[in-house]
Structures
1.
Amino acid sequence: MGAALNSVFTVSDVRQLAKGVFSVTFDAPGLASRAEPGQFVHIKCGHSRPLRRPFGICDAHGGKLTVVFEVRGEGTKWLAASAPGRRVDINGPLGRGFSETSGKTLVVGGGLGAAPLLFAARRARERGGVTAVLGFRGVSNAVLTDKFESVCNGVFVTTEDGSSGLRGTVALPLEELLKTGKYSAVLSCGPRAMLKAVAEVTERAGVQCEAALEERMGCGVGACLVCVCKTKKNGIETMSRVCRDGPVFDAREVVW
Ligand SMILES: Cc1cc2nc3c(=O)[nH]c(=O)nc-3n(C[C@H](O)[C@H](O)[C@H](O)COP(=O)(O)OP(=O)(O)OC[C@H]3O[C@@H](n4cnc5c(N)ncnc54)[C@H](O)[C@@H]3O)c2cc1C
Ligand code: FES
């Protein structure tokens, strides 16, 4: 894990990917070169707001770092209204990212949980190949599929309403792909219910699985305990800090 930087970076690109979903890219050479897939950045969203907002790193290469997010409240509204040239205070990269997998990797994302998996897929491709399973509510929520297609050996899209790809959740294609016996690791990010289902399917298949969790955060660096979640090691339950001990956890260690 590289040391975190707290500095001001310049916005170089802003795009709207879907209704209420934006990507913002920063010129951030020092930050991009330190970042590992699964880590996050803590962004000060507006000069008058003391609290930072956490975002998974969607991509980091060529001196640029990109986050992809949905507008939820004041902070994300401020960030979405960025234009190239805006100077933004960012702390990062923070937290524990995904382990380096070997052999073929499956990345499984739900909704905006797909965002940090793009960076993970880019790295996994270099180490034995990668397939993506991406679940969305409907076709209008499906983002980044073109980016995954350019990085992955295969991309399977599911939608709850059947408006694109397979109707249903990611669980079905995941189960089928794991039956082939080709995959040695699963990396997942998305809503908690999806992560729990992915953890159950991978456990049944005997394949290693890591899950990137989201919790509301305060400090982002392990001091305030706002972000704690229940985990277990050797059968003993404990509390872990998502910002510092995670956000990526071995799926078997999370108390779902
Ligand atoms: C490690 C981590 C990585 C994240 N990565 C992404 C990402 O890549 N893309 C993305 O769109 N979002 C991501 N989030 C969620 C994002 O941080 C929140 O949506 C954002 O902080 C909301 O800020 P706001 O000021 O706009 O909204 P607020 O006014 O703070 O809240 C608006 C609504 O969002 C909910 N909310 C706020 N924070 C969180 C949170 N941490 N998790 C779930 N719900 C929350 C609130 O309960 C409320 O309903 C991530 C969260 C964490 C902890
Ligand atoms: S956000 Fe403060 S300890 Fe995690």
2.
Amino acid sequence: MLMTVLLATGVMLMFTYTPSPSQAYNDILNLQTNVWFGQLARNLHHWSGNAMIVVAFLHMLRVFFTGGFRQPRQFNWILGIVLLLLTVGANFTGYLLPWDQLAYWAITVGTGLIEYMPFVGKWVQTVILGGPEVSAATLLNFYGLHIALIPIGLLAIMSFHFWRVRKDGGVVIPRAPDEEVEKKVKRVVTIPYLVTRELVVALVLMAALLVFSMVVNAPLEELANPDKSPNPAKAPWYFMGIQELLLHFHPLIAALVIPAAALAALVALPYLDADLDSVGVWFRSHKGRRMGLAATGIGLVVTPLLVVADEYILDFAGWLPSLPTLISNGIVPLAIVLLLLFGFYDGMKKRFAATNCETIQATFILLLVSFITLTIIGIWFRGPGMALMWPWDVAAAVVGH
Ligand code: HEM
Ligand code: HEM
């Protein structure tokens, strides 16, 4: 549904938009003031683009928590991961297009993360930017990716994804314990039962999106100025978890090792957790639910504590001055986090006398809650100089600036 809205409004935007630094910003201003319903079209595109990341992420959680990634759906799970990456790519390339201060600096910070890849980082960054920094070439690159390559990729893989859902026997349902129960399971046909519900959901979503876009405008700051960096300069919101990690770990660990490990773990999940008995059961079991709740509580308390401890107390680089920072600021804190994680895994498994599958789920929930907490801290609790402060102080400082 969101993809359809994005396609329709995206094509409308193309009628008034020119991807050049001297034109883009004025085109957006013109769209917002002189074009009938131009602001509405932009708002719909902007909010659908952000909502699609949230919705794809929520769908991934639904699949995870019902065990929908397991055999025979492993391959569709991986297609899903590609879809999520493409959706983020679509949002990221779209982010630059208005060519205002927000766009310019968020993309500068966001693409700055690529540089930390060993050996090839600088080269990859230059290819993506079309030069050493965000420029006219970047705008044109991003435009091409945004309006053609990524949408085509998304549509192609989505079709494959939907076909696989049917090929794999439809959406997961709990296994019936025996034939007696199997006979009592009420089966309904897709049309009209499922399709009617989907239509209702689509209409409610569309109405909500429309009302939201009538009330809240997509942000637009001043024209991009490469000489005047805002303070703080933040990446797009969905990368703020990584930007927050950069404040605590050596860049190689924060921008590369941790995200790559997270991605590898997602791809490997169907092979790590292959228990077929709990497929289709939300949170695996009664025990799985209790462990999930415990993991959420621990994540919500421990993550901010670690952030605050690292901000004010921990100083590995100062304590271990003779070591290279990759070790003192990278390997050492990473080892501590991994130890805590193993402690958590082992402790939970013993405390709840749980299966591997239930414990993997609890660990996933802990990491998920930590990631969301880090993202929230990065978005709302970091002010000028990326100093830790309360959200109202951040707001006051940014307005003052
Ligand atoms: C998953 C798909 C897509 C996502 C997530 C997405 C996201 C975005 C975002 C976040 C922006 C910046 C909006 C703003 O701040 O105003 C944007 C701008 C834009 N998008 Fe997309 N978009 C998608 C698909 C498309 C498609 C298919 C087209 C064209 C056919 C398109 C054309 C445009 C144009 C022309 C702009 C610049 C105008 C503007 O910034 O208001 N987009 N997109
Ligand atoms: C643009 C993004 C995506 C779209 C439009 C999409 C769409 C869908 C739809 C319509 C279904 C069938 C209905 C349902 O199960 O809810 C489905 C199933 C599925 N999706 Fe996605 N999906 C997307 C992203 C993802 C992601 C990010 C993942 C996981 C990483 C994923 C993994 C799966 C799996 C494994 C199934 C089968 C689940 C089952 O049978 O219960 N998808 N997807």
